[in-house]
Amino acid sequence: MNNSYTANLIKNLCKEKGVSIKTVLEDCNIRSSLIHDMNKKNKTPSTEILEKIADYLDVSIDYLVGRINTAEKALPEDELNLLNAYREKKDMQDAVKKLLDI
């Protein structure tokens, strides 16, 4: 994990969502020096801390750490199938029937 990348991404997400980093960290009960420590000391936050921040900012942990480049959270398989059917402009009625087991 690239700690500077993740720290900068958190900063940018906060800016996009109109919330201060300080507010996010306080609301998540995380030490205020986290971003500084990630950038300047190359400290890696725990999975628990990343999870709290990701949930607060409504993104996936994979997005925060640079594993994927879309901020969408992972969807359950049934919802993902329905979304893919919509995106591919397949027959939505069949996709909904399968999802609902009709």
Please give a quick description of this structure.
The chain has helices at 3-17, 21-27, 34-40, 47-57, 61-64, 77-87, 92-100. By secondary structure, the chain is mainly alpha-helical.
Radius of gyration: 18 Å
Percentage of residues assigned to helices? 55-70%
Biggest β-sheet description: none
> Can you write the helix and strand succession as a string?
HHHHHHH
The best one-word shape is elongated
Which whole number gives the mean pLDDT? 83
The end-to-end span amounts to: 44 Å
Approximate strand percentage? under 5%
Total strands: 0
State the helix count: 7
Structural class: mainly alpha
* Residue windows where pLDDT falls under 50 for at least 5 positions: none
Q: How would you describe the overall organization of this protein?
A:
- The protein has 102 residues and is an all-alpha fold.
- The protein has seven helices and no strands.
- Helix 1 packs antiparallel against helix 3 (34-40) and helix 6 (77-87) packs antiparallel against helix 7.
Topology overview:
Layout: H1 3-17, H2 21-27, H3 34-40, H4 47-57, H5 61-64, H6 77-87, H7 92-100
Helix pairs in contact: 1-3, 6-7
Give structural attributes.
102 residues; mainly alpha; 7 helices; 63% helix
